[in-house]
Amino acid sequence: MALELYLDLFSQPCRSVYMFAKKNNIPFEFKKVSLMHGEHFGDQFGKINMIRKVPALRDGDFCLAESIPIMIYLAEKFQTPDFWYPTDIHHRARINEYLSWQHTAIRMYGSKMFWLRLLIPKMIGMEVPKEKMDGALEDLNNSLNLIEEKFLQDRLFIGGDQISLADLVAIVEVMQPVGAGLDVFNGRPKLSAWRDRVRVSIGTELFDEANRDILGAQEIMGQIDPGTLELFKPKILRFYY
Amino acid sequence: MELYLDLLSPPCRAVYLFAEALKIPYEFKSVNLFQGQQYTKEFGELSIIRKVPVLKDGSFVLTESIAILQYLAQKCSVADHWFPADLQQRARLSEYLSWQHLNLRFHCSKVFLLRALHPFVMGSEVPKEKMDAAMEDMKQSLDFLEEKFLQNKQFINGSKISLADLVAIVEMMQPLAVGVDGFKDRPKLLGWRDRVKKELGEKLFNQAHEAVLNSSDMQQKLQNNSEMQKLKSSLSKYFR
């Protein structure tokens, strides 16, 4: 049985896994899990991942959730080039530091901005109060500032001269609010230059393909029936609103 | 090697317990969060993120407990069970370390911060609705800890203790500081806690948790200096 990756490319961590697997020519079967249609609540998917989140991996009997362990598993199993997750202790630590920090920083605030701009207004039937939007933007900007000032500094990539898992994980989170119509690269030449390098490193065709759904999100989300959003409402409002 | 720690912080306790249990030589550098020492100029020069723990090994400075623990495991060639070399075992452990940031850690912290700091930051007790929501989220995380990560195993990664247990236990202890016992009516988690304590050494475990379990002192420790205004301002957004 081929290795299976359960993905929805609207999800940031799914995009990281997808780009990593494709870039490294890792053979896998793409199993689409449409979040907007609640497919992650289905019985079948529950057997793959009882936490009901994507991405998820199935390799024979072995099931794994969480994008970071998934990519590290793939890197090791398929012996991808060292620069993705270097064996050198200091290099690896630097990348691990980013991978850890990002969960409650850019990931949280980028996601929040996406939900607040595109979907929460539909859920609550009104515009999000200005104070909440301003607070969310401030948090997002703080995270972007730290990416520039601490994690990138004058380096080409987060880990140094070459791309790594840290850049893959970072780029998808930074792109999420862009999908909601907020150009985070505006006024940030360092971040823009890094994005361009990441895009070239991954391969422009693969990068653009992986980002097609999220960059078309405004149009797609605009057509969503508020009824569909009922599934997400309690959790999302509690977490982001 | 220096470790900048405040044992009130769960990730600091994880690093402390690991270093102490494995007798890794280091210098304990205290950073008093309730006095706002994370906002001093000196600390900012060490780490612009202004959080603890921080490791300084020669000129190499590293933040984030998960990264620090893995660095120490790799550098000090610790016993394999802490961070197994086997591909699937390591993946299983890493799955927990990744999941916990926005789940167990996030929700246990929230319960603690709401009870312990809401009055200091917002000038009033935490609204019941907010507290109930936080407790419900914490309950869900504990359910997953039991049903997905621990199941019927001795420890999260199997028959031996690993980094995952360290990282989990310190988060579960935090709400106890404000009288919320996550272990109550959960014999599986109680059994696991006792095993973890035994592996680490009861004396060490209790010592690491002494500060956070003396909650009566906590409100008095909170200073109202200029550094703490920064903490107030960042927490007030979190509480809104």
From TrEMBL, chain A:
Xref: PROSITE patterns: GST_CTER, GST_NTER
InterPro entries noted in UniProt: Glutathione-S-Trfase_C-like (IPR010987), Glutathione-S-Trfase_C_sf (IPR036282), Glutathione_S-Trfase (IPR040079), Glutathione_S-Trfase_N (IPR004045), GST_C (IPR004046), GST_C_Theta (IPR040077), GST_N_Theta (IPR040075), GST_Theta (IPR051369)
Superkingdom as given in the UniProt entry: Eukaryota
Record carries keyword Cytoplasm: yes
Segments forming domain GST N-terminal: 1-82
Subcellular location: Cytoplasm
UniProt entry keywords in alphabetical sequence: Cytoplasm, Transferase
Main location: cytoplasm
Protein name: glutathione transferase
